[in-house]
Amino acid sequence: MSDKFRNKYRIPSTRLQNWDYSSNGYYFITICTKERKHNFGEIVDYKMKLSRIGEIAYKYWFEIPNHFSFVELDEFVVMPNHVHGILIINNVFSHVETRHCLVSTTMNVTNTNKKINRFQNQGKHTISSIIGSYKSICTKIVNKTQKNTLFGWQLRFYDHIIRNEYSLSKIRQYIRDNPLNWDNDRNNLQDDLEYK
User: Fold this and answer.
1) d(CA 141, CA 181)
2) Right CATH number for 9-184 from 3.30.70.1290, 3.20.20.10, 3.30.70.3270, 1.10.3720.10?
3) pTM, 2 dp
4) Which of 6, 37, 86, 154 could disulfide-link to 32, CB 3.0 to 4.6 Å?
């Protein structure tokens, strides 16, 4: 069971606990809308037709390198209720600029006697800070330009550290094929259609 903090249950982090998320590498990211509402558009003839909110999500993804100069973009797709993308962190100064922001704590792994180092408060050069900034600007622009629209993101996002060329190739193809496979996508919740 999860630990409590201030009398509320804490949901364990989905991040890999011994990984420095400011490290150079390729990261596969999935971010879903709140309650997986179809805010970003719809699939028509196996192609994504973006709503106004979908256009905002698309546009601001490509702004990320303008605000995080150490980030490069790879494959990306906006789907009706989520986005998939590959971010590349390529920061030659990462060990100087970001390692000092990390606070390493030791924690017990549940049901074992092992202890692992867990990085907390990873600072502004991490995947979490990049995704947080992206979600924030999208929400701000939607709220400013799309009045009376109920839009939000899920609190968390999914990440996968891509460790080799084979995995990178498979994930790129998965992203490209996502609109073609929408009918069988686990995020395709037809009852939650909210197209604006």
Assistant:
1) 30
2) 3.30.70.1290
3) 0.74
4) 154
